[in-house]
Design goal:
Elements (H helix, E strand, L loop, with lengths): L2 E4 L5 E4 L7 E2 L2 E8 L5 E6 L1 E2 L2 E8 L9 E6 L10 E3 L2 E3 L3 E5 L8 E3 L2 E3 L3 E6 L5 E3 L2 E3 L3 E6 L10 E3 L2 E3 L4 E5 L12 E3 L2 E2 L5 E2 L6 E3 L2 E2 L49
Parallel strand pairs: 1-4, 2-5, 3-6, 4-7, 5-8, 7-9, 7-10, 8-11, 9-12, 10-13, 11-14, 12-15, 13-16, 14-17, 15-18, 16-19, 17-20, 18-21, 19-22, 20-23, 21-24, 22-25
Length: 261
């Protein structure tokens, strides 16, 4: 980043000046901000369709009260939507990417990093948030999803993301509110190098393809009560061709269960 903003004031380094009035199509590209305890690097308050690319916010350290890298919020329901982050980074703050009410829906975070944050990404009462191809590491909780009531934090996606060194959880459903308020999350193809992959039980989740370097199990769940799993062979197969193959390589002295219903 050629430009470095060393914010020594109190509050927010960059924000729009007319809260409650919607602003559209802002662009923030290629600079770094340093902030102090309790400050916010960039606040997209009542901003929609913003694009942030190659922006870094560095705070004073991990821990409660140490500021926020990027925050999205609105005093208008749905007043801060369709915002996107590309190759951005939050380092050493309380909340790296802080997605707040009212309805900061369709926030997309791509190829970005949250390092040494209390919460790498915090989602509260916001639908259709997408976190894809990111790295969230060396913090307390990687991704936290909260919903004050049902139907306000639906259809989150966390995919193709690397988690390592988070001490409490890599993905946590429900920190302040009940995990069951979070509905239809899609957790796919992430790699949990270390740490507890998933904490909390959301409603109708889809867990597919995560890998883990720990003994914690990765669940595969159908997201609807009335929709079963289907493993279907749709073309003709030759004699002896196997449709479903389970290998349980139990080389220890224990007595594990291969299939449980």
């Amino acid at each position: 980043q050629a430009t470095v903003l060393n914010f020594t004031g109190v509050g927010t380094c960059l924000a729009q000046s007319t809260p409650g009035v919607r602003v559209f199509n802002c662009r923030f590209i290629g600079f770094q901000i340093t902030i102090g305890a309790g400050d916010i690097g960039i606040h997209l308050n009542d901003v929609s369709l913003a694009r942030l690319e190659d922006v870094v916010v560095i705070g004073p350290g991990i821990g409660v009260g140490n500021g926020t890298g990027f925050r999205i919020s609105s005093v208008i329901n749905g007043g801060a939507v369709y915002n996107a982050f590309y190759h951005c980074r939050a380092l050493s703050v309380e909340n790296g990417f802080d997605i707040q009410p009212l309805g900061s829906n369709d926030t997309h975070i791509f190829d970005s990093r949250a390092t040494a944050c209390t919460r790498g990404v915090y989602v509260l009462d916001s639908n259709h948030v997408v976190i894809d191809a990111c790295a969230i590491e060396s913090g307390t909780r990687g991704v936290v999803v909260d919903a004050s009531i049902s139907a306000v934090s639906d259809a989150l996606t966390v995919a193709n993301t690397r988690f390592e060194g988070n001490t409490a959880a890599n993905i946590q459903f429900g920190e302040t509110f009940a995990a069951a308020n979070v509905r239809y999350p899609n957790i796919h193809n992430n790699h949990h190098v270390t740490g507890t992959p998933i904490v909390g039980a959301p409603t109708f989740p889809s867990f597919i393809g995560d890998t883990s370097g720990t003994a914690e199990s990765i669940r595969i769940a159908t997201p609807f009560l009335n929709v079963p799993f289907y493993f279907e062979r749709t073309v003709a197969a030759p004699a002896g061709e196997v449709a479903f193959h389970i290998v349980d390589s139990n080389v220890g002295s224990g007595t594990p269960v291969t299939v449980q219903i």
